[in-house]
Design brief:
2 domains, four-stranded antiparallel sheet, set domain protein methyltransferase, domain 1, alpha+beta
Length: 461
């Protein structure tokens, strides 16, 4: 999933407003979707069924994939993936033929800022093969990442390069959204910048990189991140026995077909006229959900390459246990700005990337994670000579004072109209308080380290 310089894109916030009738329809659809989610679980798993996700899982199965997980909404946790039964290391959680992934379309230009508006247009196509997947994606207002942060909130971040990068990000989104205005008009839709930003946010928060291609990966992208997570996904043969042999013998992964790498994947047309007729007689609700269309594409029409992206359990997981996904070590500002959520637990009291000494001050590297955190199970702790520690304490003291000096101005920021309910504002303010506390704790740790060094030096005399 991918925090890239390419992300430096943008939108100048308030622009086109959706017509009242369209807004009412969207509100009704959102209410219906919310009602669908509240289906109690009867299988001993936590939370409630997510109907759109259930349809997605069936769509993957209908088209040659394997799914051995359940998707649930759990109060206080949100949507996630859970073990449908007891799992052992190596068990397959999901196996998705590469032909089922949705590849980002960069025909307008480079970066998610150009592909996001195109995704929005693709999602409006009711007959799209990927409609069951599109229907499972978060709706507008459910993604809170940097693409959608109102610009009056940016002073909360209090980092010049990051604030400038977000403005550029949003300006670029607006630019590409306007380029596609004729396509929106043809579909009798407004080229609404907020909608285009939602498409970009979906890509930047949910894509995975394979063959230098950014793709949306069904099912795996439903799993929540955990820094300590070990479950992984990789390219394997769809045939389970061949995949097991590849893992056991350390054989190289199969190459992904060029059609996948180019993002050009054409669904096969159904050949069975009887199946087609049966589909036409199904309930319209099924057709709208895309399940009927998925059934029209027999298994052999999908997964023809025999190559899958396979997600496996790497540890024992009891039935009902949550199945996580790991995007590498993410600090709190990584998840707030890149993915739009606050992590719970001890990570909240670790220095944010922006406040770490190794954070790059180069504008073009503003989204890069510090190399000292790559592949690490826990954040890197600063160390060095006594003089190094003293210098770092002074740096943090200056940083803390600068943040606190802006507290009054930040507290006066009001909820913006592009942030209904103030969810983004509340998240940013909570993160800011965590940053302050994390700096204070690090200064205390360094003070103790400095005292320990002083005592050691005395002992050596």
């Amino acid at each position: 999933m991918l925090f890239w310089v390419v992300c430096m894109l943008a939108l100048a916030w308030p622009l086109a407003v959706v017509a009242a009738a369209a807004a009412a329809a969207a509100a009704a659809a959102a209410a219906a979707a919310a009602a669908e989610v509240q289906q109690p679980s009867t299988d001993g798993l936590p939370g409630h069924h997510d109907m759109a996700s259930d349809a997605l899982l069936q769509w993957v199965r209908n088209n040659g994939g394997q799914v051995h997980v359940a998707v649930r909404h759990v109060p206080g946790r949100g949507r996630g993936t859970y073990a449908a039964w007891d799992l052992a290391p190596g068990d397959i959680l999901a196996s998705i033929p590469v032909e089922l992934v949705y590849a980002a379309n960069y025909s307008l230009g480079l970066g998610f800022e150009s592909a996001g508006p195109t995704l929005v247009l693709d999602m409006t196509e009711p007959t799209s093969f990927w409609q069951p997947y599109f229907s499972s994606l978060p709706k507008p207002g459910q993604v809170l990442s940097k693409e959608l942060i109102p610009q009056p909130y940016l002073p909360i971040i209090q980092d010049e390069n990051t604030e400038a990068a977000i403005r550029l990000l949003q300006d670029n989104i607006e630019h590409y959204c306007r380029l596609l205005q004729p396509a929106f008009v043809k579909l009798q839709l407004e080229a609404n910048v907020t909608h285009c930003a939602h498409g970009t946010a979906l890509l930047s928060t949910r894509t995975f990189s394979y063959n230098s291609q950014e793709v949306l990966l069904p099912i795996v992208d439903l799993a929540n991140h955990d820094n300590a997570c070990l479950h992984t996904h990789r390219v394997e043969p769809c045939d389970v026995a061949k995949g097991n042999k590849q893992r056991e013998e350390g054989l190289p992964a199969p190459e992904i077909p060029a059609s996948f790498a180019s993002g050009v994947v054409i669904p096969a047309e159904p050949q069975d006229k009887e199946v087609t007729a049966a589909c036409s007689n199904k309930e319209k609700s099924q057709q709208r959900a895309g399940s009927c269309r998925a059934n029209l594409n027999p298994k052999q029409s999908r997964g023809v390459s025999g190559i899958c992206i396979v997600w496996r359990a790497e540890t024992v997981v009891a039935k009902g246990g949550e199945l996580c996904n790991n995007y590498g070590l993410l600090l709190q500002d990584n998840t707030v700005l890149q993915y739009g959520f606050l992590q719970a637990g001890d990570i909240a009291l670790e220095l944010s990337m922006l406040d770490r000494p190794e954070h790059s001050q180069k504008f073009e590297e503003v989204w890069d994670k510090p190399k000292s955190t790559w592949g690490q199970p826990l954040p890197h702790k600063f160390t060095g000579t006594a003089q190094d520690v003293e210098t770092e304490v002074q740096r943090l003291s200056t940083r803390l004072a600068a943040l606190k000096a802006r507290d009054a101005a930040v507290a006066s920021i009001e909820t913006h109209s592009d942030d209904p309910g103030g969810r983004i504002l509340a998240m940013l303010l909570e993160w800011r308080q965590q940053r302050l506390r994390a700096i204070e704790l690090e200064m205390q740790r360094l003070a103790a380290l400095r005292e320990e060094m002083r005592l050691d030096a005395i002992d050596e005399l």
